[in-house]
Structure formats: structure tokens, C-alpha cells
Fold this sequence. Notes:
Blueprint: H1 2-21, E1 47-48, E2 56-57, E3 64-68, H2 70-75, H3 81-85, E4 91-93, E5 104-106, E6 109-110, E7 117-119, E8 122-123, E9 135-142, H4 146-149, E10 156-162, E11 174-175, E12 178-180, E13 186-188, E14 191-192
Protein name: TonB-dependent receptor plug domain-containing protein
Main location: membrane
Membrane topology: Multi-pass membrane protein
Amino acid sequence: xxxxxxxxxxxxxxxxxxxxxxxxxxxxxxxxxxxxxxxxxxxxxxxxxxxxxxxxxxxxxxxxxxxxxxxxxxxxxxxxxxxxxxxxxxxxxxxxxxxxxxxxxxxxxxxxxxxxxxxxxxxxxxxxxxxxxxxxxxxxxxxxxxxxxxxxxxxxxxxxxxxxxxxxxxxxxxxxxxxxxxxxxxxxxxxxxxx
Length: 195
């Protein structure tokens, strides 16, 4: 053991000389990318009208806003607002048993059914399920929203923009999707679009 302690400073001196002798030079790394790729912007909305005024860029909006686009609503086959709002981790379900209208909690605060829900900027009663078949996007203002509505809960405001799905040339004008819900009851929805 005595000899090991005497050799330790010698080993450290030799190792430090070896490490200092070979400096490591890394090659330059160039990273390039594209801000918009095909299909990538379908789910990403760049504008919102959450304040009830004109639409503004999300980058210029001094608030925490989540916007769920028409493509996301359609691809998720969302029937209820809870199907859309599952995409935001700050939103949870309040008291919402099957068959009862939905209640939401945003950042731990319940949304008020009297003034926290809006369609096209107009207040609606929250004690109802909102059909999403003709909705263009769903916007969620998280946090204080007194500027937008005058009176509101600390949780925020949920704004639904209707705009109707546009019929593409390759889509059928009439379709009947049949799905099975979690409760095991089949659901049949008929949609007619076009001229």
C-alpha cells in the first residue's frame, strides 16, 4: 500500500502530459432545415383570433394560446371537444360522466360554463356538447383572459371557429362512417357535403 501512494503523483504527472500532448480538433457541423415541409404545416396554425378581435400571428400574441387545426380535428375523428383538447397536456377533464356535458380544467382551474366557451367570438353556454363537424379550428387561451371577455375564470377561454370543411375533388359528397365507441355502443354519423 505504501508504494501505491508514492506512485500516484507520478502516474498523474505522466497522464497529464499525455493528455496535453494531443489536442482534439472537431470538424465543423452545419445544420440546415426547412421551416415548412409538405404536410408538416397541416396541424400547425400560425394565427389565432383568441382575443375576439382580428386574427393575429401566434408569435405576436402575448399569451399562451393553443390552436388545433381543422386537419387535426379531422384526422383525430374528433366528435367532442375533449377529443381535441387531449392534445394539450395542460387540459384535463372536470366532472364529465358519459352522457353529461363536458367540463374542462386548464392548468388546474375549472372553466366557467357561463362565459369560458365561445363560437366565432360569441359566448355560448358551456352546458352543451359542441359538434365539431363544421369547425375550422379550436383555440384555447390558457391563463387570465379578462381582456378578451371582461369576466372569465383563471383557467382561460376556449374559442371554436366554425368554417365548414371544404370539399376536395377527391372526396365523396356523402359518407357514412360507422365507429364503435369505448362504451361498446355503435355510432353512425351521416355527412353530406358539396353542391
